[in-house]
Design goal:
The structure holds two protein chains of two kinds. Chain A is an alpha+beta fold. Chain A has helices at 17-27, 29-51, 76-89, 119-124, 165-201, 203-218, 221-232, 236-246, 248-263, 266-273, 278-314, 326-335, 342-369, and strands at 93-100, 103-109, 128-136, 142-149. The chains are: A alpha+beta, B mainly alpha.
Chain lengths: 374, 307
């Protein structure tokens, strides 16, 4: 036996629950790709806004609701309108404009002498920059200016007020994901603590604690949320702590059920008989067995919270301007739908694919961690 | 059985009482009141209004008033929709919401179960993946995305259905709201059914049934389905209560005169009686449907007995 190569020695080391679950999760391609997608989405939303060419609050007055495009704005046909608009704002007459060597030459006339500072009016338009006076007639009634066109890219188009949709979508993603995680965590912490105490203490305490959960269950949950919004105002961090504080009911039930059944398992009794102390039992046996359902439930809870947040934002109770979330963007998009469909299509796509990915991960984890399936 | 039902009704009363109490006091601790408008009402008028509705009296007395009225079946007047009592609003809106909810639920249960069984019988095949994918999509796309998309596509582009409105309950007006209400429920039912059917098909008595040479139809429909139905039944209870008391989003988007919006509107306007009425209504629905679920359990699962 001694000269059998080492690599052929059968490894009879038992695989831990987590190693096993991980191996099974990797088998599940839908879950794995969803995980990659989610990581990608999270990185995109967290770091993306720093790399986009626009701030999420910047308003481009000349680019209200421009459709998504990979070529730059302004489109050639838009320059004429922009020139006329800018000149009209400065209350002088446009004598004509032409394009020369990539510069726009604008000639204006007026009945009153023209102040040179009126180049500002041209610069103020989001289309032009660096306007200079080229030539001025001796009586100041005619002015020739040269200005260059500022090229802007709006890959996802712009919204109603002329803000870049790409940056806004990513910023909104930050908010939506953060809220999902935050409220999800709060719900899990409260639910686990409450459910585990009820399950472990048992008896009368358990009965009373679960009765409370039953009553809270029968109260319409949206009622709670609206009351919390009323209390906390529209401060979204507080609000989502509150939303998390409402969503713990399911978690508490699940954890309590688990705790009750684990407590009576033979392996726990065996450990007790062997003299393992309470702490050891808790760490070695109870927590790992509790963790599976908790992790699964958490991945399913996060999408619930995101949907809930968008629902509240849809009702106007959620995130307030200038911040945005996917739900807010969708509700705004729905109002402009037939004419500007990208306003609803883009955030809807981001929201649904993220929720989709989260659901697949949850399902994958459930399959991977389910001991019955082994 | 009858005794059990009766006892369950009795235990529902304290639950309802606690719910009413919590809702009442939560509503009242919230800042603001029904007559605090932005413009500011004339103080004399406001004082008069508050006196008429007993709002100037101590809270515990208002609570007793409310309980007393509620026991007599009086939900009180609505503060923000003057000239209407809450009961009148419900009488007008509830049938609408009930109809839509019942239709959506029935369709969701039938189609969802069918899809779930189909997927379970073809586990890990293309059919299964398609059903699971569609079901996941259905349960993740929010209603307020589906509803406008429905309007855009079927109403504005194809002109098959009206964009919204109730049209005195014309069939064509119900299609959109029922479909949007149904879709997420259908998706959840299909997923639940698939999971429980797979588990049920692996059970010992099913293996025995197959070994005895029963036909596929008999095995699946008569034996496996019975066990697989339990999770669906327990899901359908709360879902029925939620659907039949109306959905804010669907009713707002399709402009349906149901009772779904009263809840949100009422809470935001501090229309105390309207919110309380809605809470009581939803609680009654929840309790009733949970009772029905328990009874159905006994019918489906012979191991459950209530004597």
């Amino acid at each position: 036996m001694t000269d059998v190569p080492v690599s052929h020695v059968p490894t009879d080391k038992g695989r831990s629950l987590w190693a096993d679950a991980w191996a099974r999760l990797k088998e599940n391609r839908a879950a794995l790709w969803s995980a990659y997608y989610l990581v990608f989405m999270a990185l995109l939303c967290v770091f993306g806004p720093w790399f986009t060419p626009h701030e999420f609050t910047t308003i481009y007055q000349d680019y209200n609701r421009v459709p998504p495009s990979f070529s730059s704005y302004p489109k050639p046909e838009m320059i004429d309108l922009a020139v006329k608009d800018a000149v009209q704002r400065s209350r002088v007459q446009l004598a004509g404009w032409e394009e020369k060597d990539g510069k726009i030459i604008i000639t204006i006339t007026s009945a009153k002498p023209i102040d040179e500072r009126m180049t500002r009016y041209i610069d103020r338009s989001s289309v032009f920059e660096g306007t200079q006076v080229v030539e001025k007639s001796f009586d100041s009634l005619k002015l020739v200016m040269s200005t260059s066109v500022e090229q802007q890219y709006f890959f996802f188009g712009t919204d109603n007020s002329g803000r870049d949709m790409l940056t806004r979508t990513l910023m909104a993603g930050r908010v939506s994901l953060a809220i999902g995680l935050l409220a999800g965590l709060v719900a899990v912490v409260i639910g686990v603590l409450y459910g585990a105490s009820a399950g472990f203490i048992g008896g009368k305490t358990d009965e009373v604690m679960m009765r409370v959960v039953d009553v809270l269950y029968a109260l319409p949950f949206i009622f709670f949320v609206i009351m919390l919004v009323v209390f906390f105002g529209r401060n979204f961090v507080l609000m989502f702590l509150a939303v998390g504080a409402v969503l713990w009911l399911d978690m508490a039930r699940i954890v309590r059920g688990q705790a009750l059944s684990i407590k009576r398992q033979e392996y726990v009794q065996a450990a007790e008989a062997l003299g393992v102390n309470r702490w050891g039992i808790l760490i070695r046996h109870i927590v790992p067995n509790l963790l599976g359902p908790v992790v699964i439930y958490m991945t399913l809870l996060v999408p619930q919270v995101i949907i809930l947040e968008s629902f509240l934002s849809y009702l106007g109770l959620g995130v307030q301007e200038p911040m945005s979330s996917w739900g807010v963007m969708i509700s705004q998009g729905a109002k402009n739908m037939p004419s500007a469909n990208w306003l609803i299509a883009i955030p809807s796509f981001f929201l649904t694919t993220t929720l989709f990915a989260l659901n697949f991960i949850g399902d994958g984890l459930r399959d991977a961690l389910d001991p019955k399936d082994r | 059985m009858l005794r059990y039902v009766f006892r369950r009704f009795l235990t529902a009363i304290p639950t309802l009482f606690v719910i009413v109490t919590i809702a009442f006091f939560l509503m009242r601790v919230a800042p603001g009141g029904p007559f605090n408008q932005e413009k500011g009402l004339n103080p004399v008028i406001k004082a008069n209004l508050e006196r008429v509705f007993h709002l100037d009296e101590p809270l515990w007395r208002q609570y007793l008033y409310y309980l007393q009225n509620l026991l007599q079946g009086d939900f009180g007047p609505s503060y923000n929709l003057p000239d209407f009592t809450v009961a009148e609003l419900f009488k007008a809106g509830l049938p609408v919401s009930l109809q839509l909810g019942a239709m959506a639920l029935t369709l969701a249960l039938i189609i969802g179960s069918g899809l779930g069984i189909w997927a379970a019988l073809r586990q890990n095949q293309l059919t299964d993946y398609v059903v699971v994918g569609v079901a996941t999509a259905g349960s993740t796309i929010p209603t307020f995305v589906i509803a406008p998309l429905f309007q855009l596509f079927f109403a504005l582009t194809l002109h098959w259905f009206p964009v919204g409105g109730w049209g005195d309950g014309a069939f064509i007006n119900k299609v959109g709201p029922v479909l949007t209400l149904m879709l997420p429920q259908l998706a959840i039912v299909a997923r639940l059914m698939r999971g429980s059917m797979i588990e049920s098909l692996h059970a010992h008595h099913i293996r025995t049934a197959r070994a005895m040479g029963l036909s596929d139809y008999s095995v699946v429909i008569r034996h496996a389905l019975r066990g697989a139905l339990l999770p669906i039944v327990s899901y359908a209870g709360p879902a029925a209560a939620a659907l039949m008391t109306g959905s804010v989003i669907v009713e707002t988007i399709f402009q349906i005169p149901g009772i779904g919006r009263y809840f949100v509107d009422g809470a935001l306007n501090r229309d105390y009686t309207l919110v309380m009425g809605t809470v009581v209504l939803i609680a009654i629905f929840t309790v009733t449907f949970n009772l029905i679920v328990d009874i159905l359990y006994a019918v489906i699962d012979p191991r459950v007995r209530y004597d």
